[in-house]
Structure formats: C-alpha cells, structure tokens
Design brief:
Elements (H helix, E strand, L loop, with lengths): L1 E10 L2 E11 L4 E5 L6 H9 L6 E6 L2 E2 L5 H4 L4 E4 L11 H8 L6 H14 L1 H5 L10 H13 L5 E5 L7 H16 L3 E5 L3 H7 L2 E6 L2 E7 H5 L2 H7 L3
Parallel strand pairs: 3-8, 3-9, 6-7, 7-8
Antiparallel strand pairs: 1-2, 1-4, 4-5, 9-10
Helix pairs in contact: 3-6
Length: about 230
Amino acid sequence: MLIVENLSVHYGVIQALHEVSLEINAGEIVTLIGSNGAGKTTTLGALSGLLKPSSGKISFQNRDLLGIAPHLRVPAGLVQVPEGRRIFPTMSVAENLDLGAYTRTDKAEIARDLDEVFALFPRLAERKIQAAGTMSGGEQQMLAVGRALMSRPQLLLLDEPSLGLAPILVKEIFAVVKRIRERGVTVLLVEQNAHLALEIADRAYVLETGHIVMSGAAKQIAGDPRVKAAYLGA
C-alpha cells in the first residue's frame, strides 16, 4: 500500500531524516517508535505533504505521492491525526465531524459513517452539540480520530495518540486502534508508548536520530534486548 524509499528531510541545514525506507501492507498496523527528536513526526509530515522531502520516493497505492498536493492526499485515502489533536475548539463535536467529510459528497454514506463513529465513540454521540474545546483531553482525542475516519481513509496516520492522556484512556484509545483495523483501515502508528504500540502492531520500525536502525515483526522487536533497554524500561 505504502512504499517509502530513501526519504530524506531537512530543516534548513539540519537533516532530520536520513534515507528512511519503510513499507506498509494493506490491513496492517505498523508502528514507528523512537525517542523525542528521532524524526517520527517528521516522517508523518513528509507522508501527509506538510513537509517537502529533500530526496527519496513515496508511493501510495502505486501512485507517486510526491506528485500529489497535500490537500489532495486526504481524498486519495491518506489521512493524518496530528499530535496534539488540533480539533476546532469553538465548533461543536458534530461540526468537527462534518468537517472530516468535507471532501465527500455521498450524503447517505456520510450519515452511515457518522453512525459508525458514534458507535465507536459513544461519548461523542452524547456530546455532539457541545463545544469541542470544553471536552476532556481523552474526548478530544476521540474526536480527532473520529474526524479522520469521516474522511474514509485507507491509511490512517496516528501521531502520538496517547500523549497527555490518563492510563485508562490510553488503553481505550489503543483498543479503538485495533477496532479501526478490524474495519479495514490500515494504520501507521507513531507512538512514544512503545510497550502498547508493539503490543497491538503487526510490524515495527525503530527510528533513531533520523535513521531506521531496526525493523521486523512487532513481537520480535519487543523481545530485542536493545529495544527493551531503550524503550521498554527493561
């Protein structure tokens, strides 16, 4: 579904990514783990078009993604849930979800997808007329994910979905990620909580200072002594 080859990204003279290569197959949950500053968010920014790579190739569904403008990547099926949620705080929950379907015109299917989002996140249904900015952090994260799902993504990019959430809500969000995959959506998960990320993922990549230093089955990565020492507190 997604093939990234030798992707490099610079911020001025600073190189943030060094020839990163990765692959995501349809139906997978793939996680990208690493410490702060490793380049995880930069990778997602390049995939979604918010950052322009200095070199490399990105192919999505056999199309050159670098030839697609950022605002056209959403209707093409690639949707990002950004770090920090970025919901519209003064708008209602329902209005935020409506904006997720902004690029669509299939009203009947939009209504059906809205029902599915409410089934996935019952609290959003209870608060649909409430201003989004007045909700808790966990509820806002649910809204950010729900808004992305309203775009009908084929590949969902999740950037630090557990950031700032209480442990019980973190587990809830990760359970939802598994349910999203069960609904046919492929997921690329960027997450500092390596333990939970590796628990739900099929495969994993480890990113350090802009380099992919390890990749493989998530269980294999979780069992590696270097990963245990660096990311799992062992």
